[in-house]
Amino acid sequence: MPGANGPPTFGRMPAAAEPSLLPRFQQVRLLLRERLKSGHYERGLPLPGERQLAREFGVARVTVRTALARLQEEGLVMRMRGKGTLPTGTGEPPRHLPLRAGLLDSIVSLGERTRVQVLDHGVVEAPSHAAEALGLAAGAPVLRVVRIRKFKTQPFLYSEVFLPADLATAVQRHTLQDTPMLVALEQHGVQVDSAEQTMGAALADLQVAQALRMQAGEPLLRIARVVCDATGRPVQYLTGLYHPGRYEYHMRLSRVGGPTRVWIENNRPQNGLA
Questions:
Q1: How many Cβ atoms are within 10 Å of 8's Cβ, its own excluded?
Q2: Intervals of CATH 3.40.1410.10 along the chain
Q3: Residue-wise pLDDT tens digits, 114-151
Q4: Residues 259, 248 contacting (CB under 8 angstroms)
Q5: Residue 77 near residue 83, CB atoms below 8 Å
Q6: Which residues form the HTH gntR-type domain (predicted)?
Q7: Which pLDDT score is estimated for 14?
Q8: Are 79 and 110 in contact (CB under 8 A)?
Q9: Averaged over 235-264, what is the pLDDT?
Q10: What are phi and psi of 49, to 5 degrees?
């Protein structure tokens, strides 16, 4: 992949992974992985910043960010707030491998290639619908998070999320600025396993309409999702309100199953990733 001043000089792409056949974030991941494996980056010192790497590789910052997220999953780097991205030198995978298949994978990917703004974050008494979804007593303490998610500066999702209070430390407010919530739960040791989701329609009230830059009363796509861990315990209850002009689901159905992809506007990247 050419950089700003010509081809990079840190090794060849593996023969089995032709650059023209790979998404750009995968090309960047492989090139950085080769550097990390060869000791190009000194352990204990941060890698160049996202902006510098994006200029070098001739890609967008979000592409570099996604590549670094994959390298973190491999155990090759640690992303530390205020310190940048540090090589680990181990290459050992985390205890629970993040979800990388099917719809949950697509949801994680969506979080990695969009930006989030946290509007509210705090422990509250669970309303009855959230308590029922999480299998808790009404009024039990839960973490409530309200967010807006944007793609290319355009807001497309207003979400309200409830989690059991004992998981609040996994999704602190600053963590959610850079890390998808399901990934944060995995990093905390929660083995996210499955989800049950329903889809329907709703009308935008004034607060949601202002957040999504639309008119009050316009139709929205409403999604309610309960995510469970490997023991079957509900660990997340989400209600998402999506701008119908900026977001759509695309599902390919077959007798033996297949991938479900999440698309935003007309951005339809290969394998649901960008």
A1: 15
A2: 102-272
A3: 788 999 999 999 999 999 999 999 899 999 999 999 88
A4: no
A5: no
A6: 22-90
A7: 40
A8: no
A9: 71
A10: -70, 165
3-state SS string for the chain: CCECCECCCCCCCCCCCCHHHCCHHHHHHHHHHHHHHHCCCCCCCCCCCHHHHHHHHCCCHHHHHHHHHHHHHCCCEEEECCCEEEECCCCCCCCCCCCCCHHHHHHHHHHHCCEEEEEEEEEEECCHHHHHHHCCCCCCEEEEEEEEEEECCEEEEEEEEEEEHHHHHHHCCCHHHCCCHHHHHHHCCCCEEEEEEEEEEEECCHHHHHHHCCCCCCEEEEEEEEEEECCCCEEEEEEEEECCCCEEEEECCCCCCCCEEEEECCECCHHHCC
* CA gap 180, 192 in Å, rounded: 13
- The tokens for 104 are 């949950």
Strands 234-242 and 219-229: antiparallel
Listed in order, the ranges of the chain carrying CATH 1.10.10.10 are 19-87
pLDDT reported for residue 109: 55
Give the side-chain half-sphere CA count within 13 A for 136.
24
Q: Return the CATH class of domain 102-272.
A: alpha beta
The type of residue at 129 is H
Q: What is the identity of the amino acid at 108?
A: V
* Model pTM score: 0.58
